[in-house]
Design brief:
Blueprint: H1 4-9, H2 15-37, H3 44-63, H4 65-69, H5 74-85, H6 87-93, H7 97-104, H8 106-117, H9 120-125, H10 128-141, H11 147-152, H12 154-176, H13 185-201, H14 203-211, H15 233-250, H16 252-275, H17 279-300
Helix pairs in contact: 2-3, 2-7, 2-12, 3-6, 5-15, 6-12, 7-8, 10-12, 10-13, 13-16, 14-15
């Protein structure tokens, strides 16, 4: 393992990370300014979560030790990408940037935002199941020879820095944000089942990396002219598997809790909607439901 002095003093500039951080920080600051002008009270802890926890962790991963050594160390690259996908979006999502945007854009801006979010491609990508499957697919690539060019190519690193946090936001925002997804309780239960299975499956690539006696990415030649604390290729792969296994499992808990919270809120909204209906409206809904059942039965009949 690296000495603490190396961990603390390692630093490099990541231009792709700046492309993500600067606009995100500026847009959130603009939202906070608009909220003050409109007299909207925005909790300070949410802004701290977004800037310090969300963008701060993203900066530490991109500019600090994981960013410096991700090309040389499988475990540093795995730490960076796994946190890009799970930890950074979860911490930034606590700042509820989408809710802040909806509150401060005004009618015209909100309509444009909802139109953009309503595009078929955006609905597909922001589906919790689809986003989770994309994450599982990416981790499966870690078991192939593609893992080596992913962690050593500057171009691939830039693409992953831009794309992976977005994938994480698409997976976590529908769970965290109020009104980010209008699914009914039954659909949320289906999403929960699939996401639970996928989150557990995320640990499988980590377990395989940990248990494999062979170097899966084919890069088995030790690095030359590098510090003596760098592990050999097999040990490096085992450490990467340990990290992926641990992080994929430890992040499951808050995501599953958030899914339960989302289901509870949706169930309360549906119950409130039914409570507000009059007796005549309830009777009309019952008749329509029975009519649909009879029609469906006639279609299945001889």
């Amino acid at each position: 393992m690296p000495p603490w002095e190396t961990v603390i003093t390692s630093w490099s500039l990541n231009w792709a990370a700046l492309v993500v951080m600067v606009p995100a920080a500026a847009l959130y600051a603009r939202g906070l300014s608009s909220a003050r002008q409109r007299g909207i009270h925005w909790p300070l802890w949410r802004a701290v979560s977004f800037y310090v926890l969300g963008l701060g962790s993203f900066a530490a991963l991109s500019f600090g030790f994981p960013g410096v050594y991700s090309h040389d160390l499988r475990w540093a690259f795995t730490l960076k990408i796994t946190c890009y996908l799970f930890v950074v979006p979860l911490l930034a999502g606590l700042g509820k940037p989408l809710t802040l945007t909806r509150l401060t854009l005004g009618p015209v801006g909100s309509a444009r935002l909802e139109a953009f979010l309503g595009y078929r491609l955006m609905r597909l990508l922001s589906n919790t199941i689809v986003a989770a499957l994309l994450g599982l697919t990416m981790f499966t690539v870690f078991l192939t020879p593609l893992f080596y060019p992913l962690r050593t190519s500057p171009g691939a690193d830039a693409v992953l820095t831009l794309v992976v946090p977005l994938m994480g936001l698409l997976m976590t925002v529908p769970i965290i944000e109020e009104g980010a997804a209008g699914a009914v309780s039954a659909l949320i239960v289906v999403e929960f089942i699939y996401v639970f299975i996928e989150l557990v499956a995320d640990a499988i690539p980590g377990i395989m990396m940990r248990m494999s006696p062979q170097i899966l990415d084919g890069a088995a030649v030790p690095l030359l002219n590098h510090p003596g604390w760098l592990p050999n290729p097999l040990r490096d792969q085992q450490l990467a598997g340990d990290l992926l296994w641990f992080l994929a499992e430890i992040v499951d808990l808050p995501l599953i809790i958030l899914m339960f919270v989302r289901f509870s809120r949706s169930d309360k909204r549906e119950a409130k909607t039914f409570d507000e209906l009059t007796d005549d409206q309830l009777e009309e809904l019952s008749r329509a439901h029975l009519a649909n059942q009879r029609e469906h039965g006639d279609q299945l009949g001889p």
